[in-house]
């Protein structure tokens, strides 16, 4: 795992070494073991290395035999040994045993098509001196981040945002549309960031820079249209085989590894497979809250049960509210843009605990988005009701049901479905993305905004969700939701925060569920193998539960999905309230004109409760205020 950076001077002026050194120095935490810089007139590549494979060599940037192709690579390629043998047979010569050099020679043979052969997580940059072309690539699911900025004078890229902000050509200004979207979704969706001049390369995309032109293309996308036809038992056995194979491939490396063990079915399954496949005692790590120990959603007892079941070397971290508050500044620094995911801070602390013992950590990230682990049955039930209303003739809906409801029933839910029935059924999820995080509505944001927003026209934050649903319109309703969750929530929240919080402590996080061969298998499953309706209700992640029967403890197997427990509402009654009050009343925050003081004051004075929305809205505002104070973007 590493950090990469680079520049292409569009005006053909020479790149200065000092410029590249500043860029790579800004992300030394991503690669404390080595630094490399290569320059060729108006082009430069930089690299920070965390040594995992071929630790004795593999220095980057790295080139082919005649130095016509250079690469800076971040990630791991799990099938690199297989590809290496093929390349050797084709006459290629290798100077290292690294997976990085495999990509270079594969590019020589296949050009940009090399990405189709790669199994793993990656973000890399290739400079082809023969065609004077820069190629950027990001892995299929977006496990590894890649940012870029383009001006008339320079094109620059990096694994993080901070290196880009060191460049004189990049003005560090606020992206108002990015903030607008963040306040609804609690994160920004690629390609947008909270910085006006900085973009994220989307998962499964390539970007080419040549002759001053920047072009992008999709090389892979989730496809739910091709369904497997097989018996239930055959599908369960195939799920077992693929998950075991993926986990085994993710154990490659020359450094110690461990697992994040939350106590849920996903991380427990990965812990069990790592224990079985490695043949060694596994180090496992769990985090919880002192104040939440008695809450039924606290997963620590299940994590302990799993650790005992597999005989792991188990480590626990019990956080206090004060620790949580103290960790916010570090979180904001390493996250680089506002991200209001409360579980980020515990992950930051847990990674710090693990760093002295392990370099690789495995987790169960991605299973919920692939196999329907959240409460997808709720919007599905709404879709089924919408189907019923669409089956009623329009004349009856308009001239009988609607007047009866307006005069007598006055049901908001019935009125909503009557309104939805006026639109095509295929647009249901586009017009009612209720399952997505929705903190501030468009109307609420309009009341919240201050004078700084005058004259700024914002696109509705729901549009980015609707656009994703349009791309998934041909899939079954459940698969439409899984597509959008995987493309947005998983890539732009869960995976991004996981990368940033672990790499802050030079730890490489691996996610076996997101090996693209397993992802494609999950997409090809019939929907009832993911979400199964039973007499008792709905069985989420049905196939996974069947696949890990006998592997993980029954108490873990049969418990419902609860999500990581962070008592943010109680923290807003104690440790976070004073911090928020000081930030919101600070001179710099008030003079920014971003938010109406009266609206903020009203939110602050209302009592925080778990059920109420005040803390849910105060939390992203607090994170933004901390980010603004730390980075001071131009408004």
Give a topology summary.
Elements: E1 2-9, H1 17-25, E2 34-40, E3 43-49, E4 62-63, E5 69-77, H2 80-89, H3 99-110, E6 120-128, E7 133-138, E8 147-150, E9 154-158, H4 162-165, H5 176-185, E10 199-200, E11 205-210, E12 213-218, H6 232-249, E13 257-260, H7 265-278, E14 283-289, H8 300-310, E15 313-319, H9 321-326, H10 328-335, H11 344-354, E16 360-362, H12 367-371, H13 377-391, H14 394-409, H15 412-420, H16 428-431, H17 442-448, H18 463-471, H19 477-503, E17 508-510, H20 516-523, E18 532-534, E19 537-539, H21 542-547, H22 554-557, H23 568-571, H24 575-584, H25 587-591, H26 597-605, H27 614-631
Parallel strand pairs: 13-14, 13-16, 14-15, 16-17
Antiparallel strand pairs: 1-3, 1-9, 2-3, 4-5, 5-6, 6-7, 7-11, 8-9, 8-10, 11-12, 18-19
Cα shape: globular
- Tell me the strand percentage band: 15-25%
- The CATH homologous superfamily of the largest domain is called Aminohydrolase, N-terminal nucleophile (Ntn) domain
**Main sheet strand line-up:** 2-3-1-9-8-10
Tally of helical segments: 27
Largest sheet: 6 strands, antiparallel
Query: How much helicity do the residues have?
Result: 40-55%
Query: Kindly, what is the distance between the CA atoms of the first and last residues, rounded to a whole number of angstroms?
Result: 34 Å
Number of strand segments: 19
How does CATH name the architecture of the largest domain?
4-Layer Sandwich
Task: Give the assembly state of these chains.
Answer: single chain
Low-pLDDT stretches are: none
The top level CATH class name of the largest domain = Alpha Beta
Structural class: alpha+beta
How many separate domains? 3
Round the mean pLDDT to the nearest integer and report it.
Answer: 91
Radius of gyration using CA atoms only: 25 Å
| CATH topology grouping of the largest domain | Glutamine Phosphoribosylpyrophosphate, subunit 1, domain 1
């Amino acid at each position: 795992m590493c950090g990469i950076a680079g520049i292409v001077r569009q005006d053909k002026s020479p790149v200065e070494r000092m410029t590249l050194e500043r860029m790579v120095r800004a992300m030394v935490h991503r690669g404390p073991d080595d630094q490399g810089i290569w320059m060729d007139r108006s082009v430069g590549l930089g690299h920070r290395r965390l040594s995992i494979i071929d630790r004795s060599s593999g220095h980057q940037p790295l080139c082919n035999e005649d130095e016509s192709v250079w690469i800076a690579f971040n990630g791991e390629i799990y099938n690199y040994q297989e590809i290496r043998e093929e390349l050797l047979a084709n006459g290629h010569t290798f100077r290292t045993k690294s997976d990085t050099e495999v990509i270079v020679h594969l590019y020589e043979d296949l050009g940009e098509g090399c990405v189709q052969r790669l199994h793993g997580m990656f973000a890399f940059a290739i400079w082809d001196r023969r065609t004077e072309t820069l190629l950027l690539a990001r892995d299929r699911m977006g496990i590894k981040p890649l940012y870029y900025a383009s001006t008339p004078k320079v094109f620059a890229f990096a694994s993080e945002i901070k290196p880009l902000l060191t460049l004189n050509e990049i003005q560090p200004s606020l992206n108002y549309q990015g903030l607008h979207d963040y306040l609804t979704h609690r994160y920004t969706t690629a390609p947008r960031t909270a910085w006006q001049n900085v973009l994220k390369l989307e998962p499964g995309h390539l970007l080419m820079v040549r002759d001053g032109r920047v072009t992008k293309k999709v090389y892979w996308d989730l496809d739910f249209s091709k369904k497997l036809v097989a018996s239930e038992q055959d599908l369960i056995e195939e799920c077992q085989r693929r998950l075991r194979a993926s986990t085994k491939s993710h154990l490659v490396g020359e450094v110690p590894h461990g697992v994040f063990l939350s106590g849920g079915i996903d991380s427990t399954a990965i812990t069990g497979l790592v224990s079985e496949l490695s043949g060694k005692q596994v180090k496992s790590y769990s985090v919880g809250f002192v104040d939440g120990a008695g809450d039924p959603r606290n997963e620590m007892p299940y994590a302990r049960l799993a650790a005992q079941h597999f005989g792991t070397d188990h480590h626990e971290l019990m956080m206090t509210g004060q620790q949580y508050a103290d960790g916010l500044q570090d979180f904001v620094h390493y996250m680089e843009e506002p991200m209001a995911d409360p579980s980020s801070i515990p992950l930051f602390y847990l990674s710090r605990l693990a760093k002295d013992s392990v370099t690789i950590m495995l987790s169960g990230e991605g299973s919920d988005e692939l196999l329907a682990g959240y409460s997808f049955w709720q919007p599905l039930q709404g879709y089924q009701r919408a189907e019923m209303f669409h089956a009623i003739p329009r004349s009856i809906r308009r001239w009988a049901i609607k007047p009866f409801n307006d005069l007598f029933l006055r049901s908001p839910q019935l009125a909503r479905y009557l309104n939805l029935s006026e639109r095509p059924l295929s647009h249901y999820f586009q017009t009612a993305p209720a399952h997505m995080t929705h903190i501030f509505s468009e109307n609420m944001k309009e009341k919240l905004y201050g004078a700084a927003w005058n004259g700024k026209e914002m696109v509705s934050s729901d549009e980015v969700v609707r656009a994703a649903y349009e791309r998934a319109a041909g899939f079954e309703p459940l698969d439409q939701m899984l597509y959008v969750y995987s493309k947005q929530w998983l890539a732009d929240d869960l995976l991004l925060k996981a990368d940033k919080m672990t790499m802050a402590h030079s730890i490489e996080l691996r996610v076996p569920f997101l090996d693209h061969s397993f992802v494609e298998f999950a997409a090809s499953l019939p929907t009832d193998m993911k979400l199964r309706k039973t007499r008792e209700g709905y069985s989420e992640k049905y196939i996974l539960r069947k696949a890990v029967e006998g592997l993980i403890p029954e108490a873990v197997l049969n418990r419902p999905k609860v999500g990581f427990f962070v008592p943010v509402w109680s923290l807003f009654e104690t440790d976070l309230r004073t911090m928020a009050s000081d930030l919101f009343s600070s001179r710099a925050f008030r003079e920014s004109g971003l938010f109406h003081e009266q609206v903020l004051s009203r939110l602050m004075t209302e009592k925080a409760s778990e059920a109420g929305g005040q803390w849910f809205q105060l939390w992203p505002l607090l994170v933004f205020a901390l980010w603004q104070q730390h980075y001071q973007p131009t408004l």
